[in-house]
Amino acid sequence: MTAGRDDGSTLPLILVFLAIAVAFVLVTAGATALHLERLRLLTVADGAALAAAESFPVGDARVQGGTVVPRLSDAEVGAAAAAAVDGADAGGLADVRIVEARTPEGRTALVRLTATWHPPISTPLLPVAVPITVVSTASARFR
Question: What's the predicted TM-score (pTM) here?
Fold first, then answer.
């Protein structure tokens, strides 16, 4: 029995593995970029929530049981969050918007932001744009 010729049979295998490796690198780079941009948007939301939690007028604070309790309003929270988001660096994110900025009970500021992420390398393996939404809260307290 004679063995068949195997000349060049490893080249297609190497090309397939190379294509898989390139696809893996592109998808991994895209996923990492998406995660980092989500963290950046969360940082912007944290800053906006903190600014909103500190937006109360001192005259609106009340004393309850020996503790000073600040009172937030939805209008003050919204204005402070908008100013914080406008002054923040959103990096590579497009269309950063405040979806919600309010105070649920008058002591906590809740800020919900949304943005659109575009992959750094456009390929058929990655979507063209991904919406990102984050929520952050901060409480107003005196200590």
Answer: 0.80
